[in-house]
Amino acid sequence: MTVKGNSQLSMSNCIISNSKKYGLFVVNEDVQLPVFEQNDISQCTDYPIRLYTNQLHYLDSTTHFLNNGDNSAVEVTGSELSENVVWKNLRAPVLFTGPYNNIQGDVTVEAGSVFLMGPEALIRVKSEGSFHLNGTIDEPIIIKGKVDSPGYFASITFEDSNNSLNEMNNVHLANGGGGYYNSNIAITGSTHLKVSNCNISSSSGHGLYVSRYSTLTDMGNNTFSAITGDDIFIQQ
């Protein structure tokens, strides 16, 4: 199935299988999927779904992704996201590709979500946006490279996001450091970020980069391992 242009598609209780490439391919950022639930997508040669950053919130845990081998993930191509949305805990990892996953709205990530980052991939939280990741001990939020290698992806970067909603709690984050700030997480400008109960590891640079004008609230119980640079680098 291909959806393109200014299309709108509601889809529920459907079975998509045996595609030579994607199960569902969303061509344009303008496509809307106002209802997308209880579908089964299986046995696709490529990823079951390919869509854009600003469309990820349409998917939820009622859709199953079955028997797609090494490609059992939702592929997300970078775009500008300006809405206030929830990224739900799907029944498959979410693979972010490219450097342009720009958040300009308030984004909340459900506990248990798994994000795979492609080579040089970047999630950028801009001044108008916020990123709230609140995992639990039993269901942490996992962000890691598609390949388990330090510096495989760029980073999670906050740029001038002075928003009280910015938080990372019970997040396991690994394999970053390949971007401009040379760290798994970077907070720059007037950003404010709270971090607690996080496991930050396997960075080719720093674990967490803090610019001189940013505010990091370390709420405790954070661990760092296999970090090439500083666990927390604070710009002077």
Your description of this structure?
- By secondary structure, the chain is mainly β.
- The protein folds into two domains: 1-73, no CATH class; 78-236.
- Helix content is 0%, strand content 47%.
- The model has no long low-confidence stretch (mean pLDDT 96).
Major sheet attributes: 10 strands, parallel
How many strand segments? Answer: 28
One letter per element, helices H and strands E, the order comes to: EEEEEEEEEEEEEEEEEEEEEEEEEEEE
Shape: globular
Overall helicity: under 10%
Kindly report how far apart the N and C termini lie: 52 Å
Sheet-strand content, in percent, reads over 45%
Instruction: Report mean pLDDT, rounded to a whole number.
Output: 96
The structural domain count equals 2
Provide the gyration radius in Å. Answer: 17 Å
Given the helix and strand composition, which structural class is it?
mainly beta
Strand order of the largest sheet: 1-4-7-9-12-15-18-21-24-27
Number of helices: 0
Low-pLDDT segments, ≥5 res: none
Kindly list the characteristics that best describe this protein:
236 residues, mainly beta, 2 domains, seven-stranded parallel beta sheet, globular
Summarize the structure.
This protein has 236 residues and is an all-beta fold. It has no helices and 28 strands.
Write the layout of secondary structure elements.
Blueprint: E1 2-3, E2 8-12, E3 15-17, E4 24-26, E5 32-37, E6 40-42, E7 49-52, E8 64-66, E9 74-77, E10 80-81, E11 85-87, E12 94-97, E13 101-103, E14 106-109, E15 114-117, E16 122-125, E17 130-134, E18 141-145, E19 155-159, E20 167-169, E21 171-174, E22 183-188, E23 192-196, E24 199-203, E25 206-210, E26 215-218, E27 223-227, E28 232-234
Parallel strand pairs: 1-4, 2-5, 3-6, 4-7, 6-8, 7-9, 9-12, 10-13, 11-14, 12-15, 13-16, 14-17, 15-18, 16-19, 17-20, 18-21, 19-22, 20-23, 21-24, 22-25, 23-26, 24-27, 25-28
